[in-house]
Amino acid sequence: MLITHDTRCALDTVVDLVNTVPEDESATDGLADVAALQEFVGTHEVSDIGMLSELDLSAVRRIRGRFAAVFAAPDARAAAGLINDLVAAAGTTPRLTDHDGYDWHIHYFAPGASVADHLAADCGMALAFFVVAGEQERLRRCEAPDCRRAFVDLSRNRSRRYCDSRTCGNRLHVAAYRARRKEAAG
C-alpha cells in the first residue's frame, strides 16, 4: 500500500490525538488546556490554524473520541460509517496545495475551517484510505495488558502487536522470560 507523505502525517497526527486520552484516572489528559492543544497543533504542523480557544479544545476532544471509536471498530463497515460521519460533519472540501516546501498534496478541510474540522477532514480521509484498501485491521490498539495506545501497523506482514516494541513489547518479553526461568528453576 502506497502511503503518501501527507497521508502519513495525518496518520501520525490521528494516532497521537487518540493517544492524548488519559489511560487511567491518575494520568493527565494530553489536551488538558488550550496551550496543550496549541503545542499539539505546532508539533504536528497543522496548517491554516488561527488563534485557538476553549471552544476549539472542546471540539477537538469530541472528535478525538470519535477517532478512538474508529480504532475500536469491529470491522470495515463499522469503521467506514464512523469515518463517513466525521468527514461529512467536517464539510470536506478537497483541494491541491504545495505549501511550506512540500510538494503537491491534497488538503480535505475547507479554507478557514476550525482546527477540529481540519483534523476530522484530513485525518478522517487518511483513515478512509486504509478502509478502501482493505487494511482497516492495521488500525490497532496495543496488546500489552497495561497499555491500550492506538497505532497503525505498517509492518509488511501486519504482525505488529505493540505500540512500541522497545517499551511494551520488550517489557512483556522480559516478563515471559522471567516466568519461564522461574518455572524452570521451580
TrEMBL record:
Source organism superkingdom: Bacteria
Cross-referenced InterPro entries: ABATE (IPR010852), ABATE_dom_sf (IPR023286), Znf_CGNR (IPR021005)
Domain annotation Zinc finger CGNR: ranges: 138-181
PANTHER family, alphabetized: BLL6575 PROTEIN
This protein's name: CGNR zinc finger domain-containing protein
Organism of provenance: Streptomyces olivaceus
